[in-house]
């Protein structure tokens, strides 16, 4: 495979410097043992993965890294010279501040659109399921969690939520959520009105950032960044806050309705890492974000019909496991093992042991088709909005969900015969994980009230709470930041909760087990032992960051303070996607400081950087902190937590 040698960075070239980009060993690319083995294996087989492509991409464009390139119109592409020698404006006249701010807003709108579509697909399915149930017609989906539906209805202020017939309530809930997509007036989102605490709502109103509709804010963002529209970095970023808030409540809609359709997560035990793939079973990997199809695949894979079909081709059973957030969804509700996070997707296929990878959308690498093509593996796309050349496309439609799941399973099972056993290499690496810590479950574990948790925070047994979330990014060694930061924090009596690819990293590192209590500081450990929970709590997929916000709202309410007053912090040590930008922004808007371990492309504008890392705190009570070194990041976080404790009059 071609190796990367020294090359020149464009920005360095401008300065007349040269920079060499070394080739990293697998141990420098990832801290995950299974991934290290699989990178070597992929290299032996001549398979290119994201880790290799990242190196081949060096040097990455220095203008782009600073946020100083723009291709939004066809007068471009333009770039601005950060050293003041070359152009200081794009052809249209946009300066570096406008250029960088536009790009931030584009990321936020992109993230909002991703979660918005996800939520909308769940809403459509929910509505159709309710319609069918009302007419007693069969349909693949139904209301599975009536208790959750009634709780949502109560929050939304629907009268008689505890006694009304369940389908009536469901129709009302669907209408209220749908309004949040299509509203054309200036009224705020229903979900924000119902879910946000009063103090935050007042901040949003004061700043004029109350979102009106999920579709409208993203749409307006795209308008604002069009050539010749909004050139003021401040108003671009303020609208970024509004769009990110719309994203937040789209995510809440997705989480809530998924719980109603599939059940609110409860603690489950399972395993994590590529060692969950089985030598003697049909391996099916579900990947993406939306659980609408993957839940069906898991259900059907456990049926007698499919098991006997699998046995008929010589397999001992059917092993469904997951990658990325779809994995988190099916883990939390069905105990399905985690094959890995973002950077594991190609490695899973390189094992040669996967009969089918079934993908929905988001974070699915197009290169999967090439790797699947090296083996007997079928890559199956299922969503009309996410097709990949070289994949088999079996389109999911709510009414056909059972049939689609059956087709997928049949294809996978038939494929088992074609598996070349000599080319199979499954790394023997996996860890135990306990997942499924929804807010409802946490409350239940605490005896129905948050009081014991709040008391533990007040005493200092729990020094603070940190939500670690977000992706993998090949710019930094896979999982290193995720694991280092979590370890550092729990050893300092900080309870860590989280979602997404962080949750998978923590699971693979064994941080989500009862044994991991021993890694916690003495005071935190006492609490964990009483509650019988791990020091790192798996709260779900990306959209389930809404669960973390719900917990923060409840704690702030219990203490009678606003969210910025709490001894809490957010972190995305390996942020990668636009969704991560949007999520980070709405956490900041809600008053939670957010640490990023990867430098975002904003350094090309001093004023934008200052706004995001300093001035924004004057508006919303929180800011972004960028720190690639996790030891230092932990120090910053602990210092902030201690300051907040002091301000609340709590002991150290
Ligand atoms: Fe994607 Fe959600 Fe990021 Fe992982 S963490 S890389 S968005 S799968 Ni949300």
In short:
The chain has 652 residues and is α/β, with parallel strands linked by helices.
Provide structural commentary.
- Helix content is 50%, strand content 10%.
- The longest helix has 39 residues, at 96-134.
- Mean pLDDT is 96; it is low at 1-11.
- The strands form four sheets. A six-stranded parallel β-sheet has the order 6-5-4-7-8-9. It has a six-stranded parallel β-sheet with strand order 13-12-11-14-15-16, with helices on both faces.
- The protein has 652 residues and is α/β, with parallel strands linked by helices.
- It is globular.
- Strand 11 (464-468), helix 21 (480-491) and strand 12 form a beta-alpha-beta unit.
- Helix 6 (96-134) packs antiparallel against helix 8 (166-182) and helix 13 crosses helix 18 (401-416).
- The protein has four domains: 10-60, no CATH class; 96-262, Substrate Binding Domain Of Dnak, Chain:A, Domain 2; 274-423, Rossmann fold (3-Layer(aba) Sandwich), CATH 3.40.50.2030; 436-647, Rossmann fold.
- Bound molecules: FE(4)-NI(1)-S(4) cluster.
- FE(4)-NI(1)-S(4) cluster is lined by residues 289, 324-325, 341-342, 363, 470-471, 500-501, 542, 576-577, 579-580.
């Amino acid at each position: 495979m071609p190796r990367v040698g020294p090359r020149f960075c464009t920005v360095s070239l401008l300065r007349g410097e040269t920079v060499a980009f070394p080739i990293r060993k697998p141990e420098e690319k990832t801290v995950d043992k299974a991934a290290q083995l699989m990178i070597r294996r992929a290299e032996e087989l001549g398979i290119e993965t994201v880790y290799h492509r990242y190196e081949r991409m060096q040097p990455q464009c220095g203008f782009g890294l600073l946020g100083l390139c723009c291709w939004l119109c066809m007068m471009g592409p333009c770039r601005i010279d950060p050293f003041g020698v070359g152009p200081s404006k794009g052809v249209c006249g946009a300066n570096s501040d406008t250029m960088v701010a536009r790009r931030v807003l584009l990321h936020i709108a992109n993230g909002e659109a991703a979660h918005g579509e996800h939520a909308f697909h769940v809403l459509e399915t929910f509505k159709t399921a309710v319609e069918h149930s009302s007419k007693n017609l069969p349909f693949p989906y139904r209301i599975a969690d009536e208790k959750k539906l009634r709780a949502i209805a109560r929050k939304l202020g629907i009268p008689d939520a505890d006694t009304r017939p369940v389908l009536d309530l469901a129709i009302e809930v669907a209408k209220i959520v749908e309004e949040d997509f299509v509203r054309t007036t200036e009224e705020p989102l229903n979900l924000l009105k119902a879910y946000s605490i009063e103090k935050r709502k007042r901040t949003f109103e004061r700043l004029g950032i109350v979102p009106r509709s999920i579709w409208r804010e993203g749409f307006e963002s795209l308008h604002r960044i069009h050539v010749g529209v909004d050139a003021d970095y401040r108003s671009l970023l303020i609208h970024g806050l509004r769009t990110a808030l719309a994203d937040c409540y789209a995510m809440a809609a997705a989480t809530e309705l998924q719980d109603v359709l599939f059940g609110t997560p409860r603690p489950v035990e399972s395993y994590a890492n590529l060692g969950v793939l089985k030598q003697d079973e049909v391996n099916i990997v579900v990947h993406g974000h939306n659980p609408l199809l993957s839940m069906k695949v898991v259900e059907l894979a456990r049926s007698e019909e499919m098991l006997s079909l699998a046995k008929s081709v010589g397999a001992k059973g059917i092993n469904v496991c997951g990658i990325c957030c779809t994995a988190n969804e099916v883990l939390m509700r069905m105990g399905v093992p985690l094959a890995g996070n973002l950077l594991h997707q190609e490695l899973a296929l390189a094992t040669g042991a996967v009969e089918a990878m079934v993908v929905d959308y988001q974070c699915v690498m197009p290169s999967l088709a090439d790797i699947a093509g090296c083996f007997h593996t079928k890559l199956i796309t299922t969503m009309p909005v996410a097709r990949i050349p070289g994949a088999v496309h079996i389109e999911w439609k709510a009414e056909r969900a059972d049939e689609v799941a059956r087709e997928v399973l049949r294809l996978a099972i038939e494929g088992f015969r074609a598996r070349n056993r000599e080319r199979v290499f499954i790394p023997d690496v996996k860890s135990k994980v306990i997942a499924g810590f929804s807010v409802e479950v946490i409350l239940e574990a605490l005896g129905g009230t948050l009081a014991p948790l709040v008391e533990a925070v007040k005493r200092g047994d729990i020094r603070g709470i940190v939500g670690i979330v977000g992706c993998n990014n090949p710019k930094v060694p896979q999982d290193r930041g995720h694991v280092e930061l979590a370890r550092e924090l729990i050893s300092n009596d900080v309870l860590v909760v989280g979602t997404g690819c962080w949750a998978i990293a923590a699971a693979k590192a064994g941080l989500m087990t009862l044994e991991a209590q021993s890694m916690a500081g003495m005071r935190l450990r006492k609490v964990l032992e009483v509650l019988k929970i791990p020091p790192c709590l798996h709260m779900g997929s990306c959209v389930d960051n809404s669960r973390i916000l719900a917990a923060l709202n409840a704690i702030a309410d219990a203490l009678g303070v606003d969210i910025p007053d709490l001894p809490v912090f957010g972190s995305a040590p390996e942020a990668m996607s636009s969704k991560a930008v949007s999520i980070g922004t709405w956490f900041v808007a809600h008053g939670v400081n957010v640490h990023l371990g990867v430098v975002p492309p904003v350094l090309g504008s001093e004023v934008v950087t200052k706004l995001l890392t300093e001035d924004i705190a004057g508006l919303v009570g929180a800011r972004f902190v960028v720190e690639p070194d996790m030891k230092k990041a932990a120090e910053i976080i602990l210092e902030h937590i201690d300051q907040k404790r002091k301000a609340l009059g709590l002991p150290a």
